# Entry
Amino acid sequence: MMAPDDVPLGMQLVLIALLAVPALGAAAVALMPARRDRGARLLATVVAAATFVLSLLPGVIPSTREVGWAGYGSAGLPPVVPWVEVDVPWVPALGIDFHLGVDGVSWPLVVLTGLLTLLCCGYTLAKVPAGGSGRTLAALLLVLEVGILGTFLALDLVLFFVFFEVVLLPMYAVIAGWGGIERRRAARKFVLYTLFGSVLLLLGVFTVVVAAGTGDLLALVGGYGLSRTTQCVAFALFAVAFAVKAPLWPLHTWLPDAHTEAPTVGSVILAGVLLKMGTYGLIRVGVGVAPEGAAWAAPVLGILAAAAIIAGSLVCLRQTELKRLIAYSSVGHMGFVLLGIATLTMTGVQAALIGNVAHGLITGLLFFLAGAIKDRAHTGDLGELGGLRETAPRLAGLLGFAAIASLGLPGLAGFWGEAFAVVAAVERGGPLWLTLAVVAAIGGALTAAYFLRLLRRITHGPAAPAVAGFPAVTRSEWLAWSPLILLTLVVGLVPALVLAAASDPVAALTGAVR
Amino acid sequence: MIQAVDHVALLPLYAAAGTALLVLVVELAFGRFHLFAGTVGALATAVVAVAVPDHAGTLCRDGLCSWTVTPHAALMAVLFAGLTVGVLALSAPALRRGFAPPGEFCFLLTCAMTGGVVVAYAGDLITLIVGLETLTLPLYVLVGLRRVRESTAGAAAAVTFFLVSVISTAIALLGAALLFAATGAVHLDALVEGSGAYASLAAVGAALVVIGFAFKVAAVPLHAWAPATYDGAPVPVAAYLSTASKLGGVLALAAVVQRLDTGPLIAVLAVLTMTVGNLVALRQTRMVRLLAWSSVAQAGYILAPLAAGAAGVRAAYAYAVFFVLLEFVALGVIAALRGPGTDGGALDDYRGEGRRNPWLGAAMVLALAGLAGLPPGLAGLFAKVAVVESLIASGWGWLAGVVALNAVIALAYYVRVGALLYAVPERAGIPVATLPPSAAPSSATASPAAPSSATASSATASPAAPSSATASSATPAAVVSAGEGTAAVAVIDPDLFDAAAHPRPVVARAVAVSIAVAAITVAVLGFVPQAVFDALSG
# Structure
């Protein structure tokens, strides 16, 4: 029943379990009675842990397939051969196959999703933000995980869209239910913006599926002989759709509000993996399915990405609210990722992939720390914070570490993505791309400037009244943060960990462009 | 010439009409058991509709049949019967309390079901229009049928509905007559474009038929009756109007437009319908009116694929099937929350209802998200996907774009309703006296447990009501100091007050079961939409 035959049944079941375990877990957690609230959160954490272990399996167990050597496709390109895949017809009337797979491009993001959801579920064990019951929050986190994992795993265009839509309402509910004072407005802005993006994705998906007669993302790699017009229309739709999600300046305005109002766990998931659905989609669907369209639109995308880097940095220099600052810094970082993709070179796309993972780790950590500081000080206003080093040296140290990682210090995870996005733009050559590289590099310097300003305002100086008497970092906080700290170091020192397996699929995805 | 009549093919009609007669007889003989008789008869109709062999036809002449049995006709008949059972169940509490005469109510509703079954199987224009009239005629009465008349809203709604409907039927009949004059065709399968001198006559006829039927689905600019009628009718009847009655209109429209080229007219109607419906719905403050406008907009999504003619019929049917189920769940939840004999009420009446009634709230979220075309229920998502797919596949890409953008507008009000259901209700504390500031420290030290219990009970207190928040934070102090004999402040416990002000509605078992069945059907169909598509393409 399940195709293809050369993947062992066990691994196919792992793929299905990756979605089924959190989905069933979410249902079970939501159905727990109110008096067992803590038990429900514990169950959610156990489910998330199981999912995380499952997410590791496809990369840890050696693939039975001849990845990379499985014969070259018709266009002389290495085909994208997933390590593991499962393919079951679902709704033939709409051309939807339940086709999932993992390869070097998606696996790091799958693991990142599993890890961050586990950390967030664990975090809810210790602390439930005000607004609603903890078990509902935990269940929503698991539903979000289903949607995000499904998006990264989907190898069918329509299925990709379906999972893309799954995350909308749960994220809305997390922000609107457990957020800050302005949560309603921020959540509504988030959901309307992103739905706008995803309806464009729907149009793009069916533009391609109707023209090509298939939604198989493996078959569609390289354009599938689609006409140039179709590719340009489809890529334009995809690009705007993913640019809203990523978000790319000037479609980013939902992001700062959503982050400022979202509870800590919501911010971590949102910045850590939800935004990656946009950049991953741009690589897998945008560049993969409509390479000619991508080549056509690349300069515009590059210019917008460079503008995002500069705009994000400049706004950050003037920000006075901690979470808002980190949110805007995300705009800048995602600008680097999009610049890498826009170059359409192997270096650029690989830089984008590692930038994605690094941003997920570092910004996840930054939002955890910002949440911890805001919970203790009851304010996120930089003017009221200060001297954290005096009252909470460990917290200040961690914030310093995360900020320095985020500004791209060599040796930490943030460096590779940003440096090589600039390198890729230089490699691409020509006056436009050289200019963009220079602009991006300046943006990188500005990034350093605002993070150092942030550290000066928060950690240094005399202790402000708001930071007096901070409780120490609790054990549960250490547990939630230490994996992110470790991985930031490890990915920084051994970037091959993320990139080792990505070169073949990336070559296939970018190969058709030239 | 005497036609041979295949009575097996006509069995669904016999079952439906028999149900109506059965209810009448039961009313005369026993004066009770009407609901039971109606339910059993409707279920029997559904069973018979499934059991009748496919592709039979009867009342045929020259290979053209006035009664055609197809899988999708059977599916629609099942849907009509199911909706009738559902609405009977939703009305059960009101009928039991005597808000409307039960015998008449059940008889009229089963008559409407008979009309629906006829529409599903109709093979010629006259049968179609007669079926449609049989479907709507009883509804004029049902809209205004009440024993106790608190307001004239119901009567006004019934009169509006009656006038609009009669005019629309006249227009449709005129169109059918013109078509017959121009092409000599009455049977649906024989409908052709006019040719030669009669081409324009046939085109006018087709346009009039479409306009006449568009009244029934409340397409803009022929929609004005719908919001007033839905809001004036009892909620279960509104549920029937916006599901079964609308489904009848869709079937009639689809039967005509798949054979005659009315694409531009339908496209204009569709764009107007969804855009106006959604924009006006944004500003509604009453629940049923909001859903009425949203169902106007939904009719636009159903019309859109019909612009592509025969190529879009399957998508339109699929959307209609998912839509009526979701709409039924939404209105069913409203009926359950509001209790028998009441109208839909204002949106503000629903504040926090989802927190008080988790199951009803969950069903409402499923329905609203589905109507917005979003998960958790996949049915609404696949409905939207099917419409967009069929439009792009048949070259109506711009219309697909309009549908997509309208989905974004629509989400704005669905989200508003959904958020309202889970909004923290305003905590009403009634301060009896104020605490002098000097007394504050002593009461704060009175009990270390007090502040934590205050956060537990008022952690969800609305930030919009700072006075009540401060009042409730003082509550335990009052309780504690009252124990020490220094009562300075007294506040009615906001939780108790809330519970007293919003008693949990007693949901009758029949209502709960019908909502549960509809919600589960939607949820299951969301995972196996192929079943619906298979039935529709047969």
About this structure: Residues 346-377 of chain A form the longest helix (32 residues). The two ends of chain A are 38 Å apart (CA to CA). Residues 68-76 of chain A have pLDDT under 50 and may be disordered. Residues 90 and 96 of chain A are 6 Å apart (CA to CA).
